[in-house]
Known about the structure:
The protein is an alpha+beta fold. The chain is built from 1 helix and 8 strands; from the N terminus they run αββββββββ.
Amino acid sequence: xxxxxxxxxxxxxxxxxxxxxxxxxxxxxxxxxxxxxxxxxxxxxxxxxxxxxxxxxxxxxxxxxxxxxxxxxxxxxxxxxxxxxxxxxxxxxxxxxxxxxxxxxxxxxxxxxxxxxxxxxxxxxxxxxxxxxxxxxxxxxxxxxxxxxxx
Length: 151
């Protein structure tokens, strides 16, 4: 009579947990990499599109943000990815505006149904002005960057 032996499996739960942890870590890393690259790709597509108010668009989390920088004022409008206005009641934020060696930080407060506004007499739009936007929306916080390219 011929007896076949089964392969011996490790009974150690330590290796099983380590393997499971490694699989979860790899899936999480792949998901984060995909999400980051998807956001970057989406911002490349949005760079060529002007928002409803003539501003630059960026994707941040579940939102699209439109920024208009003018003399003395910075405005942001918030929509979802389908460009549906999202309420900004209860939202807050700040914008750091960098122009050469000059740095101005402006507090943003809700304005209208889906907007935020910040004012400072030193604000000016111009070529290569950088804006770092931080927003706290109900349930989430967002950050994105804009580089103004007005000629």
